[in-house]
């Protein structure tokens, strides 16, 4: 009965709400060149880091040989600066002949041979942000077909050198054109980021119908300040953004910069934890050839990836913002489980934050929690048990938590706390089997 209700709602939504290419039922994972390698085209002076087939082949080798692919990191995505400055004689985009001498189709084959998928980049405007040829309205079908012919699996469509009326026409047109190629191609739309990311200028209902993921906000940079800026924007606007995410349709707070230069290990754990709470796409932008063991361990944490990839695809929320600089985030998960993240924005010393599950609106009961980073099972907790978590400065503590009694048995229809979800709740929220939360 309850499953019927859940299945019906999900099936209904598959037919009526999301883009119907069947892709990205959980947030896509992989590697994206931009943040780490930008528009470095100097293959003479910087051959190992320039945007070239060599770079993508090396990263594909690393994804397939160093355990990333098995964990779900399957997309290897090209960003700007891959193309020639001119289209070919038939008006098609072509790769830069010096940097991609064997062309994109060859690269796609190389990537597919390793069990990976290839993503490419275009721009809904006259030029890409880096000044390369853009996709004007008259070129949409040509470019979609070119990408499909090459065997591309995902397209990020940027929005430089464009305007709002042009984007309003172009982004839906590209969605149709990709569909018409007959090749399933994941579609990432930068459209909302160019329109301020919020209604009324952004229509998230429409976006969910035409795109698999979308960049809501500005580019991430390699610093903790940038991570916090992104986090603040997404959680300050959670009433708008949280309900629109779901299987096949994701908010994208941009790349993971873990393994680069700007984040400490604590800050790296924080980015990973908060991206999991946000049900965010996990696109690393780092150098997988030289990544440290510490960064690798964070990015390859199986439970953390499992939380990010939770089947229900419900985006989480910030529950509390304390004056002390502690913030608490929560995400409901499959089988009545949930994830909690305690973030410290302090800069003094580890802060002992005291609370109880009851104060975090959990229902009466006994719970078991597993510390995601220390990989320790914690002593059982009652909802009323006061506990303390010691949170490092600019770090997090993350728990995977589930009710002991209800963990195995069939639970009745769960209901979320109004206080947590709010009136603009996720369309699936009432159907989710989460018996342990307060009404
Ligand atoms: C194209 O859209 C239709 C629904 O309109 C869907 O059934 C089909 O799978 C889509 N094809 C591709 C390749 O995305
Ligand atoms: C929007 O951009 C297109 C393409 O460059 C241009 O033709 C059109 O005039 C622009 N519209 C506005 C309102 O600026
Ligand atoms: C947003 O898009 C949807 C789907 O295309 C449409 O039904 C709705 O009217 C739009 N909302 C606004 C406010 O324009």
UniProtKB/TrEMBL annotation:
It is an enzyme of class 3 (hydrolase). Keywords: Disulfide bond, Glycoprotein, Glycosidase, Hydrolase, Lipid metabolism, Lysosome, Signal. Residues 1-18 form the signal peptide. One of its GO terms (biological process) is glycoside catabolic process. The keyword Disulfide bond applies. Pfam families: Melibiase_2 (PF16499), Melibiase_2_C (PF17450). The keyword Protease does not apply. Residues 313-395 form the Alpha galactosidase A C-terminal domain. GO terms for cellular component: lysosome; membrane. It is found in: Lysosome. It comes from the Eukaryota. Its EC number is 3.2.1.-. CDD domains: GH27 (cd14792). GO terms for molecular function: alpha-galactosidase activity. PROSITE patterns: ALPHA_GALACTOSIDASE. InterPro entries: Aldolase_TIM, GH, Glyco_hydro_27, Glyco_hydro_27/36_CS, Glyco_hydro_b, Melibiase/NAGA_C. PANTHER family: ALPHA-GALACTOSIDASE, ALPHA-GALACTOSIDASE/ALPHA-N-ACETYLGALACTOSAMINIDASE. Homodimer. Belongs to the glycosyl hydrolase 27 family. This is Alpha-galactosidase. It comes from Carassius auratus (Goldfish).
């Amino acid at each position: 009965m309850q499953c019927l209700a859940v299945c019906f709602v999900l099936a209904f939504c598959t037919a009526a709400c999301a883009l119907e290419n069947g892709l990205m039922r959980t947030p896509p994972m992989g590697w994206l060149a931009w943040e780490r390698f930008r528009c470095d085209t100097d293959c003479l002076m910087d051959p190992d880091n320039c945007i070239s087939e060599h770079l993508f082949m090396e990263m594909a080798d690393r994804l397939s040989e160093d355990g990333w692919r098995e964990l779900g990191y399957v997309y290897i995505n090209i960003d700007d600066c891959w193309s020639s400055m001119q289209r070919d004689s038939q008006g098609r985009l072509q790769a830069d002949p010096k940097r991609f001498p064997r062309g994109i189709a060859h690269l796609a084959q190389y990537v597919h041979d390793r069990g990976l998928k290839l993503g490419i980049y275009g721009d809904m405007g006259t030029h890409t942000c880096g000044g390369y040829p853009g996709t004007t309205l008259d070129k949409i079908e040509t470019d979609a077909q070119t990408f499909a012919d090459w065997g591309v699996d995902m397209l990020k469509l940027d929005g430089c050198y464009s305007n709002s009326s042009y984007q309003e026409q172009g982004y839906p047109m590209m969605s149709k054109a990709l569909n018409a190629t007959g090749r399933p191609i994941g579609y990432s739309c930068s459209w909302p980021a160019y329109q301020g990311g919020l209604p009324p200028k952004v229509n998230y209902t429409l976006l969910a119908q035409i795109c698999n993921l979308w960049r809501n906000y500005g580019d991430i940079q390699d610093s903790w300040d940038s991570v916090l800026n992104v986090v603040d924007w997404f959680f300050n606007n959670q009433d708008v953004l949280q309900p629109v995410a779901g299987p096949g349709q994701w908010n994208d707070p941009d790349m993971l910069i873990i393994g680069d230069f700007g984040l400490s290990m604590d800050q790296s754990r924080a980015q990973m934890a908060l991206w999991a709470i946000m049900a965010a796409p996990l696109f690393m932008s780092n150098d997988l050839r030289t990544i440290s063991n510490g960064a690798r361990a964070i990015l390859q944490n199986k439970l953390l990836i499992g939380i990010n990839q939770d089947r229900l695809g419900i985006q989480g929320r910030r529950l509390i913002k304390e004056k002390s600089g502690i913030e608490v985030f929560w995400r409901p998960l499959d089988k009545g489980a949930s994830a909690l993240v305690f973030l410290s924005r302090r800069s003094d010393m580890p802060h002992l934050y005291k609370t109880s599950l009851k104060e975090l609106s959990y229902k009466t009961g006994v719970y078991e929690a597993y510390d995601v980073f220390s990989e320790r099972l914690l002593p059982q907790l009652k909802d009323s048990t006061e506990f303390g978590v010691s949170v490092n400065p600019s770090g997090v503590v993350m728990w995977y938590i589930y009710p002991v009694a209800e963990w195995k048995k069939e639970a009745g229809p769960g209901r979320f706390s109004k206080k947590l979800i709010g009136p603009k709740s996720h369309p699936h929220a009432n159907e989710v089997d989460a018996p342990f939360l307060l009404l």
